[in-house]
Amino acid sequence: MPAEAAMAGTVAAVPPLAMTGIGKHFPGVIALDNVDLTLEAGKVHALMGENGAGKSTLIKILAGVYGKDAGTIRIAGRETTLSGPADALRQGIKVVFQEIALISEFTVAENIFLEEYPTGRTGSIDWRKISRDAKALFERIGFDVDTSARTGTLPISQQQMVEIARALAQEARIVVMDEPTSSLTPNEVALLFTVIRRLTSLGIAVIYVSHKLDEVFEIADTVTVLRDGRHISTKPIADHTNETLIQDMIGRQIDDLFPRSRGQASDKVALSVKGVGTEKLEDISFEVYSGEVLGFFGLMGAGRTELAKAIVGFDPIDSGTIAVGGKPLRPHDTRTAVSLGIGLLTEDRKGEGLMLELPVVYNLSLAALGSFARGGFIDERREREAAQSYVDRFRIRTPGLYQEIKNLSGGNQQKVLLARWLLKGLSVIVVDEPTRGIDVGAKSEIFALIDQLAADGHAIIMMTSEMPELLGLSDRIMVMGEGRITGSFSRDEATQEKILNAAIV
What we know:
Rossmann fold; six-stranded mixed β-sheet; 18 helices; globular; ABC_transporter-like_ATP-bd
């Protein structure tokens, strides 16, 4: 064998990244304990685990945000220390976080070359070259975008493509994607996967961090699972099933991801919506029954969240009527809605649902404070007892009632919000994207809670973009498109194909 060929084979075998024995400690917490991660060039390596498993800490070490306390990092076979994000980028590592790190007022081209603008002979910035080079980068990933557009005007899916183009501009050989599809439609997810495959065809190694099992099985070559800060397994994705991957993630089997303990819904109408119209909704009519889970599906912009906010009195309506238990929602506001027994579990739990700096007990009791008042003061003992009963019932994992809720996992935060409305005594609960940003173990618990609430006679209206939970939990399914209801299916007749066909209008 010629020496050059032998040398090429040796170089090709060197992994672009090898993290060995990585450890990281925070005060009172072991975040990572002897964790290994090795990538292959031109492959997608999924990183999975429950919230708190250590995924984010490992990624932040790789991004140069945190320093490691133990272990070694080798890039292309060379041991290195990542002194900061700029150093990580210089060494070929680009992390695309959930929160897109672009300057919204800058153009696409300006954002791509933000770290180093090309200059002309005079030393001034060569704006024409910036535009040409930006367009060439998008051609490499097979995506068309207006490089002169202000980045803040673009949808999230296109902003992600700008981040990927930035990675190519910096000649990154390792691209990390952290929950990249959390705000994307199915069509946008398909486009993202096409771009990821284009990256791997260029020899780039991709780390794909996600809670979504179906996506990982579709896009990943290999999957590493972390649990409680420790490395549990690294296997080719072909060696896994849904069940084995879940078991590695949570340390136990989930016999049924979508439990169903409830029987048939009653014939009692819990909520009636007739001819409701708003600025974004047109002639919406449906009924939901006590003991029923009514699922709503739609692509991005279909109007699901707008409908959720309209039927709980948050957004105004221009026409139509809404009645809860036969009583009209008048005046049309949230105070009246709650007094009639209907409330919203918002999709933006941190921005619209929780008071992040306050403890669990205050977040849980917020809607029902009046029931704990005596002589103008809150009976804190009764408040604590009521809150503790729901912490126990919902198995909310918290060190105590006075733990700040921002320190709880997403799944436990969601349980607190559900408990808040039950403590208030609501009969109809609207849940908008109930498992967004929640790991699979917590998802199974949320699914079980929704099923149990319906079994107890509550009416649940569930807005979701997750097809498995839509089909797994719903008794009936309504499909929306462009602010209208475009399809309705019973549990028995609903299929993914029928639902998607109805959603495309």
